[in-house]
Amino acid sequence: MGLHYYGLRATNAAYTVNSLNLIPVVTFIIAAIFRLEKLRLRTIPGTMKVIGTAICIGDTMLIGLYKGKLLHLWPTHLLKQAQLQAMGSDASPSAAGNHNDMLVGTLFLCGSCLSYAFWFTILCWDR
């Protein structure tokens, strides 16, 4: 949980929620590697598991890489000038520091995802 928290501090909430959506996928992959999950690709349920995993990974990648317009829920003239400059200053010198925080945050989120996946796999190990 701590890794997830530090990843949230270094990245943004949308990016963090995307990493949470990968936990079931990573858990399924780890369970398949340790032979806790029967894959059976020749059956419909086995094929659907693999297709669902691929769709989940693809959607997470799509949402993670998509850069859309900034959504303003209130008029922008209500924001302070410093907030407007911070939102629009991608080319500022501090942007390089934000990139480093994003990398560290991504590593924390990957560690969190792997930790949760291994924890869920260990919980099911005795069955």
UniProtKB/TrEMBL annotation:
It comes from the Eukaryota. InterPro entries: WAT1-related. Keywords: Membrane, Transmembrane, Transmembrane helix. The chain crosses the membrane at residues 12-34, 46-66, 102-125. GO terms for molecular function: transmembrane transporter activity. GO terms for cellular component: membrane. This is WAT1-related protein. It comes from Zizania palustris.
